[in-house]
Amino acid sequence: MKTTRLIIVAVGGQGNLLASKVLGQAALLSGVPVRMSEIHGMAQRGGVVESAIVFGDASSTIISDSEADVLVGFEPSETLRAMNKCNAGTTVITNLAPLPPFTVAIGRGTYPDLDQVQDLIKAKTRRLIAFDAVERATAAGNVMSVNIVLLGALIQTGILPIPKENLVEAIRTKTKKAFVDVNLKAFDLGFIAAANA
Question: Which end of the chain is more exposed for a tag (fewer CB within 10 A), N or C?
Answer without folding.
Answer: N
